[in-house]
Amino acid sequence: MPPSHKPPRLRLRVTAAAESIIRGGHPWLFADSIREQNRPGLTGELAVIYDRKDKFLAAGLFDSDSPIRVRILHAGKPETIDAGWWRARLDRALSRRRGLFDDHTTGFRCLNGEGDGWPGLVLDRYHTTLVLKLYTAAWLPRLDEIVQLLNTSLPNERIVLRLSRNLQQIAATQFSRADGQILTGPPLTGPVIFQESGLRFEADVARGQKTGFFLDQRENRRLVETLAGGRPVLNAFSFSGGFSIYAARGGAISVTDLDISAHALTSAKRNFQLNQSIAAVAACAHETVQADAFEWLAAAPPRKFGLVVLDPPSFAKREPERAGALRAYARLAALGINALGRDGILVAASCSAHVTAAEFFEAVRHSAAASRREFSVLQTTLHAPDHPANCKEMEYLKAMYLKVI
Predict the structure, then answer these.
(1) Per-domain residue ranges for the chain?
(2) Residue numbers of the chain with a pLDDT score lower than 50
(3) CATH fourth-level superfamily of 3-75
């Protein structure tokens, strides 16, 4: 289409309630909050939102197929969103992370979606590989622009594209993009090896969960290392054994990885092999158990543990699942406490955004009280510093540490 025939800028007016929410800093505008639109919008284009007095309210990326119709980029006074604006926004996010990690940690989050002003987009670094994951199709028309910006600001060997499941069809049919696609750089020959706190891990950046590893649990893994000395450790829902290797370096006498996935347990074995040069890891007995964690714990483990880590997948992906999730967390905590010996430590984590930290902590406390064993709360934790959250939908991670007599 010739420049002279470009459509007018997409203009939206929203409900009074939505105006208040946007002014309060929330980064989403839902479709049912739009009361007026000057024309049909195209996915990925910039939408400008005006208030009831026809004054600028916000601007964001339009997604014609999502209930979250606009991902807010900027609210307040008008700004020109151009290449310089994007560069400055990336620089601000990267500057927040300067000083957080030393040379012994080469895996961390560079952009955390809404928390860094890049709604629906996350960027993780694994050594020299960048993994860009999208949760809204609104970024797909801008991929070339984003890749150019990343290559300028973040030296890397390759950039890998990951897509949430709901985007994969539209990405393939309309944009010729695929989950796991290499956007720039050489092809992958296997998992990417990176460091975290001096430990080595593999990340399946093309097909693994999230972007290949659970980077958000780094601070909790570090805490587990400080608590594991002299204890037999159970790591339930172990995935690729991250908690276990930290526990081994911390002096655990044994570590049991429990997961229903044979693929995950094989990865855990490889991660242990990657760290055999560390004397404490080499000295720690490591076993894997492939089983459903609830069933295995309910059947009474063959021995008691000194530290139990419970880090299950989300039990509530939608709000209607919240009540059931709370019951599941309480039951899991009860099973974990039952597997602890005297003076044992329970580490219970949740990644369900629909369950608040207060609700989760209360569910764990309730199970501890119901066990009729004396207990004390050692500490609670929330998000890692490279995973900032600026709205309740992003406040998903929480963990509680209990000592049980």
Answers:
(1) 3-75, 83-190, 214-404
(2) 1-2
(3) PUA domain (2.30.130.10)
